[in-house]
Amino acid sequence: MVDIANIRAPLFVPANRPDRFGKAAATQADAVILDLEDAVAADEKDAARDLLRSDFTDKPVIVRINAYGTRWHDADVAAVRKMAISAVILPKAQHVDSIAETCRSLGGHAPVMALIETALGLANCRQIASIPEIGRLLFGSIDYCADLGCDHTREALLSARCELVLASRLTGIVAPLDGVTARLDDTAETLDDARHAKALGMGGKLCIHPKQVPAVFRAYTPSNDEITWARRVLASGDGAVSIDGAMIDEPVRQRARDILGRLPTDN
Q1: Which terminus of the chain is more exposed, N or C, with fewer CB under 10 A?
Q2: How far apart are the C-alpha atoms of 258 and 157, rounded to whole Å?
Q3: How would you label 145-157 residue by residue, b for 16+ Cβ within 10 Å and e otherwise?
Q4: Comparing C-alpha atoms, which of 121, 163, 153, 156 is closest to residue 140?
Q5: Mean pLDDT of 141-150
Q6: pLDDT tens digits along 68-87
Q7: Is residue 235 exposed (0-12), middle (13-18) or buried (19+ Cβ within 10 Å)?
Q8: Coil, strand or helix at 13
Q9: Cα separation, 187 vs 181, whole angstroms
Q10: Mean pLDDT of 163-179
Q11: In the prediction, which pLDDT does 263 show?
Q12: DSSP secondary structure letters along 178-226
């Protein structure tokens, strides 16, 4: 089974557009998300479900099913149980009992990624992250703002992002994925958003256009200065020492290990 901890920049593709599946896989995205929910109109959802497949790529394939309580949810669950997939995204994740029921219905077929999109979901996210089948939390920031009636700004969303990071750390699951950048014609905005998410401790970012993927990877790839610093720190031995006037001890060395751990395997 693919380790979903390694996914940083998964790319959404509408599940009713199989002509785009291979194109999405051919991008730099490290996973493809086949979307049965927001990307598919209500009268096309049953047809889209029949088009699901995962044999178009060796990359991880994830399916976002429709939310618990919708008329499509049970059929979506039944469909993904028949597929070889890496994970299932459960949208509108907010009630612990219904999430646990969905996990039971999936029967351990694939890890579940809980998409936190509401105030209630955020309030319950530590309990949600504690459900054994939950492998990762995702932030649905646009829906979250709609639920709260707040602006989609960093200031308004800071506490929510930090809570998702804390919930993931406290329950021992991988760092969460940040929500999408809605603007498609400005990759600089995606890069800036991804750098902000990384600074808060988030583990990657959801993408809705192939142009956004390289920007996310760039944000999560250490700079040459960071690499040089990390290697100097790890070469400094044990105990407390000083480098360039700054104290170096074990927590700083752990940060250095984390930086080098984000390097591509050929570095």
Answers
A1: C
A2: 25
A3: bebeeeeeeeeeb
A4: 121
A5: 98
A6: 999 999 999 999 999 999 99
A7: exposed
A8: strand
A9: 9
A10: 98
A11: 73
A12: E-----SS-HHHHHHHHHHHHHHT--EE-BSSTTHHHHHHHHHSPPHHH
DSSP code of 245?
A: T
Q: Is 92 left (phi over 0), alpha (psi -120 to 50) or beta?
A: left
Q: Where are the alpha helices (DSSP H) in the chain?
A: 21-25, 45-50, 73-80, 96-106, 119-123, 125-130, 141-148, 154-171, 187-200, 212-220, 224-234, 250-261
CA pair distance 260, 128, nearest whole angstrom: 31
C-alpha span between 81 and 184 (Å, rounded): 33
Mean pLDDT confidence for 109-126: 97
| Mean pLDDT value across residues 38-44 | 96
178-180-184-190 Cα dihedral, nearest 10 degrees = -10
Cβ atoms of residues 115 and 140 within 8 Å: yes
180 versus 266: the higher-pLDDT residue is 180
Helix or strand holding residue 137 (H, E)? strand 134-139
Eight-class DSSP state of 54: -
Distance CA 37, CA 156 (A): 26
Give the residue among 5, 66, 4, 59 at the shortest CA–CA distance from 35.
66
Q: If we measure between CA atoms, which residue out of 156, 162, 204 comes closest to residue 179?
A: 204
Contact call for residues 61 and 54 (beta carbons, < 8 A): yes
- d(CA 170, CA 178) in angstroms, rounded, equals 18
Q: Is-contact 54 24, C-beta < 8 A?
A: no
C-alpha dihedral sign at 114, 20, 203, 80: positive
pLDDT at 250 over 50: yes
Find the mean pLDDT for residues 247-258: 82
